[in-house]
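Feature request, filed as a ticket because there's no other form

It would be nice if the structure record came with a short human-readable summary line next to the tokens. Right now we just get the raw output. Example of a typical job, pasted below so the devs can see what we mean:
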Amino acid sequence: MTILIGYVPTPVGEAALEAGLAEAAARGDDVVIVNSPRRGATVDADLVDEAAAAKLVARAEAAGVSARVDHTTHGADVVETFDALAAETGARLIVIGLRRRSPVGKALLGSDAQRILLDAGVPVLAVKPTA
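Raw output as currently delivered:
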């Protein structure tokens, strides 16, 4: 089976990566590290380059987990991107990181993480960075 890990190069993304690799190692699953740009973005600071992607795969392999990085471009609906990848790969779990948000931010603005938690077609493990 496969585990999808939502990854951005931040403490939140690192928390998701570590938790996803631990789950995959415990279950004997492989992982797809999802690092996808938004459609139409000319620059995306959250997108890792090929060298960084290779390092992510090497980290997974060092943990005993087979991995690949997916850079599928997504539109406004990130849930559709994760659901399509889950169907394509037979994923049984999505792992995402959560960042701290202010009460106003929670009330006024939705988030991709919230939408994934509520609408994904497979179970979701949400983690926070430790520090």
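Something like this underneath would help us a lot:
Residues 2-127 form a domain with the Rossmann fold fold (CATH 3.40.50.620).
The helical segments are 11-27, 50-62, 78-89, 103-108, 112-119.
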